[in-house]
Amino acid sequence: MVRGMQPTRPPLVMGIVNVTPDSFSDGGRFLGREAALAHGRRLVAEGADILDVGGESTRPGSEPVSEAEELARVVPVIEALAAETDRPISIDTAKPAVARAAVAAGARIWNDVTALRGAPDSLEVAAELGCEVVLMHMQGEPRTMQAEPRYDDVVREVADFLAARAEATMAAGVGREKIWLDPGVGFGKHMTRHNLPLMGRLSEIVALGFPVLLGASRKSFISALDPAARGSDERLGGSLAAAIAGAASGVAAVRVHDVRETVQALKVWDAIAQAGAA
Question: Span 3-277: which CATH code?
Answer without folding.
Answer: 3.20.20.20
